[in-house]
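Obj.: predict assembly geometry.
Materials: sequence records (below).
Method: joint structure prediction, all chains together.
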Amino acid sequence: DSGVTQTPKHLITATGQRVTLRCSPRSGDLSVYWYQQSLDQGLQFLIQYYNGEERAKGNILERFSAQQFPDLHSELNLSSLELGDSALYFCASSGDRGSYEQYFGPGTRLTVT
Amino acid sequence: AQSVSQHNHHVILSEAASLELGCNYSYGGTVNLFWYVQYPGQHLQLLLKYFSGDPLVKGIKGFEAEFIKSKFSFNLRKPSVQWSDTAEYFCAVFQNYGGSQGNLIFGKGTKLSVKP
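Observations (raw structure tokens):
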């Protein structure tokens, strides 16, 4: 158990819908990262938040957005869903500056039908 | 931007065979390198990491990796695999933008199947 929690574990929804994925980092970790894992693209970095502020952006679509709240949990919002958005979405957290180790949560498996 | 290449998509071994999984990265400066393992249906777990110092790093479950700067490589090894090592293995490099900014760049992963 990494100490990172994600909900829900599974999500099935229809095209065009909007969903919210939730992540709670390890206690004390200020950075939260979101990754997408799909068969064709592999593991891709989406976005990083550090202590409530967006710090780095990867291959995140404009239909996707994220935020980190004062209690440090983070939410990833996916809207206007398409079949191709079906994937595993992982959240990871890391601690102090210079600590590059990231601890991953169990993931949310999103299926868009 | 940095990139990571893993040469083998799927490796099949018998128990007790030796393992070496290749990983090459593109960046020529200071790198922070990782190997993660993903057991079937589970999340990624850190196997080992290299930040600096001894280029031969030891991780959990008997795994080790060697950082060879001249070859831009960070290959994962295990002298004798077990059936329980069946998993997908990901090499990653930390892309540091400075301060608290950065992210992991992952290779495509190598699936390891160990036959009992």
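Conclusions so far: Chain B touches chain A through 25 residues (CB under 8 Å).
To do: check interface contacts against the pulldown list.
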